[in-house]
Specification:
With 92 residues, the chain is α+β, with helices and mostly antiparallel strands. 40% of the residues lie in helices and 38% in strands.
Length: 92
């Protein structure tokens, strides 16, 4: 099941009877805080929700130049935040 930011904003809007702007501010502030903390620390654990970790990977990507009719493999540094759900969330 995939949940988007819009789904979370709609839930907050209905559950707490807030405006669309307030729900947007709440969700954006939460995600920004998690993003900043995950980059500085080893990860952020939110009780009963899960763990957010900032990971860096080197990914090999094949890039092709059609004008010169050749290709090469480039190494790209990929930085992402990964989420691991808690046992409580997985059991739902």
């Amino acid at each position: 099941m995939k949940i988007t930011k819009k789904d979370i904003m709609d839930f907050i809007k209905k559950k707490y009877n807030t405006s669309n702007d307030d729900a947007t501010i709440i969700v954006e502030a939460f995600l920004q805080t998690i993003s900043e903390l995950a980059q500085v620390k080893d990860g952020v654990i939110v009780q009963n929700l899960g763990k957010f970790e900032f990971k860096q990977k080197i990914v090999e990507k094949y890039v092709r130049d059609f004008q010169k009719n050749n290709g090469e493999i480039k190494k790209i540094l990929k930085e992402d935040i990964y989420f691991t759900p808690s046992k409580t969330l997985r059991d739902l």
